[in-house]
Amino acid sequence: MAYPGPISVLVGRRTGEPAQQLQISPRARINCPFFKNLASGSSLPTTHPDALRAVLRHLDGDTNLDPFQPSNDGLLLFTRTWALAGKLNLPTLQNALVAKMTEHYKQARRADTACYPADGALGAAFVHLGNQLSTGSPAEKFLVWFVGRLARDIRDLETSLRSGNFSNRIIEDVLRVARGFERDAIRRGDAMFRVGTARPARYALPEIEVHTSAPTGIALGWRGVRDESSICSVSSSDSSSSDDDEIPTIDIILCHRPTRRDWNSRKRYGMIFSRRSGSRRSWKSRPLPTT
After folding, report:
1. CA–CA distance from 120 to each of 76, 164, 174, 214, 246 (Å)?
2. Cα separation, 282 vs 230, whole angstroms
3. Whole-number Å distance between alpha carbons of 74 and 45
4. Which superkingdom, per the lineage (predicted)?
5. Distance between CA 47 and CA 44 in Å, rounded?
6. Which residues does residue 43 pair with via DSSP β-bridges, in sequence order?
7. Residue 231 backbone dihedrals phi, psi, to 5 degrees
8. What is the pTM of this model?
9. What 3 state SS string does the chain have?
């Protein structure tokens, strides 16, 4: 059995931050089916580079979580990495992240000096969890307790929450925890913050874009491939013939019958689908030459 080689991917093109080229090692690809099936040169436009680095370190066997520091930026990195780990079905990493942030929480409670203001970074953390996963995730509950119980002045906390980018539901949840007299759920290691490793929640996979080069006027490549379009392989062929009318083609093999979204993209990018010979489940797309 051949082991996958290293690949290079472009990360974060649509996150509002500079896109970065990252290398994914063979070990990381073996340990994660999503990366194993990812083609080199692909783009993960909505994945944050720092979060992906943390995930790749975990997949490479590095258990050091020191980059997750006790700050609002650290909480934002925590939520981005936790969400990405959830999309990639890595519950062990999700629970390790919660354990690391629990250490910071306990240290802050003992020191009685730390405070996490309801600023833009904290608002972005809650928004990211809601957009990427769903409301009420274990990470969201942890964040609510983390911020609520470390608040030093509830009035200042409420003012900051209501003037920031927070939903009414999050505001009420944080204030309820801050004002409450319940036992500290983080200190006692409440199960609501952990992910079951036997049957973890399933989330949509990270968005993928596959980019290819082509002569002007020829639609080559598959744009906007998402989790529901599971790619088996992407291959291209350039004609070595001297015939100038011969054009290069690219086959993108999908592991499902083309969906309505696939057909819409076909119309937009000039792709056609045909059933792949010898397979009842695989389909291929081929660019149409322009006239």
Report:
1. 10, 7, 16, 42, 54
2. 10
3. 22
4. Eukaryota
5. 6
6. 10, 209
7. -90, 125
8. 0.74
9. CCCCCCEEEEECCCCCCCCEEEEECHHHHHHCHHHHCCCCCEEECCCCHHHHHHHHHHHCCCCCCCCCCCCHHHHHHHHHHHHHHHHCCCHHHHHHHHHHHHHHHHHHHHHCCCCCCCCHHHHHHHHHHHHHCCCCCHHHHHHHHHHHHHCCCHHHHHHHHHHCCCCHHHHHHHHHHHHCCCCCCCCCCCHHHCCCCCCCCCCCCCCCEECCCCCCCCCCCECCCCCCCCEEEEEEECCCCCCCCCCCEEEEEECCCCCHHHHHHHHHHCEEEEECCCCCCCEEEEECCCC
List the chain pLDDT tens, one digit each, 291 residues. 567 899 999 999 999 999 999 999 999 999 999 999 999 999 999 999 999 999 999 999 999 998 888 788 889 999 999 999 999 999 999 999 999 999 999 998 888 766 677 888 899 999 999 999 988 999 999 999 999 999 888 999 999 999 988 999 999 999 999 998 889 999 999 999 999 998 899 999 999 997 654 333 323 333 344 433 333 333 333 333 334 433 333 334 343 444 555 545 444 434 444 433 333 334 444 443 433
- Sign of the Cα torsion 147, 148, 151, 156 reads positive
Could you state, in order of their start, the residue ranges of all structural domains in the chain?
7-193, 230-287
The structure tokens 């093109």 sit at: 13
Interhelix angle for 72-87 vs 120-132, to 10°?
10
Q: What is the CA radius of gyration of the chain?
A: 23
